[in-house]
Amino acid sequence: MNPKVILVDIIPPGLPPHESLARLNELENLLVTYGGFVVIRKIQKRQMPDYKTYIGKGKVNEILGEAERHKADLIIVNNLLKPQQIYNLEKIFEDFARTEHGHKIEVWDRVDLILKIFAKHATTKEAKLQIELASLRHLGSRISKMGVDLMRQGGGIGTRGQGETNIEIMKRHIAERKKKLKESLSKVDQNHHNQRQERMKHGFKTVAIVGYTNAGKSCLLKALTGKEVKVKDELFATLDSRIARLFLPDSQKSCLISDTIGFIRDLPPDLIHAFRSTLSEAIEADLLLHVIDVSDFEMPWKIQTVHDVLKELGCEEKKMIYVFNKMDQLEHKPDEEALEKFQAYSPVLVSAANKINLDKLKTKISKVLF
Q: Which domain holds residue 152?
């Protein structure tokens, strides 16, 4: 059953309207990818989030009223909540569920939603391990908060009640599981490293496709190489690296080209770290293809988001070709001002779906690599 969801965002008073709209649009797109549907969108302007609930007492009461009217199943806050904030919100909604007209309502933050989507799309053992590790890291601090609260209920520091014992057991279990996951991922990473070393030994040049999620990276890989990969119009459709051989007619040589997980703004460092082994193909590549949806009116800040993530990974200085994809979806030819902005990136305009200008892209790849 698809959950009914209330989306909530806190924005600073000076944020332009189009930017606040873009933030909530992206959150709604994430939700649609997960499988829910929105009943209400709430935006609150405040300089600083409320330290107890992030959204403040007045907004909480307002959301409770909307949740009761629309029978909402889930509240999603468009940010990373502190353990205390999510704990306090959960307590409020638990109390609401016990009222005469109340019902159960879950509370997630942005990271909870992204992790749910990751779990839904994971197909390989590596991706599943990475997602489980990221989920345990996200859960860990909340478990600690539960422990503190139960200690207080038990009479203060030093109390060894059953609640505290259970929390300690949970924390120990999580720590042990995280250790095993890290060991398993270390083996996978070493295997990938050995494969890359073998490719280097044989003189293979490598290209990695990067870009904002849903820009058409997998579609481009399939169009260039003919490799069968999952191509779907949704966020985070690809979580695993896929590698294929690409023949470049101009140089009469071949290179290896890989797809990577899509980037997204405000992606917490822990999630970037969790997928570091998958992103190693980009980190160690000779060339990056930065794929951009040229029909997207939010293109400028999405380009910047990708640059920010690449900087986080330490590969912002790599050779890069900007690939402006989905040119067939432009309603009209770009005006001169837009073209000037495009030319600053020296891009190759293509349509991966319709295989337009792929030869031009191959020529440019060949010139950069060889």
A: 125-183
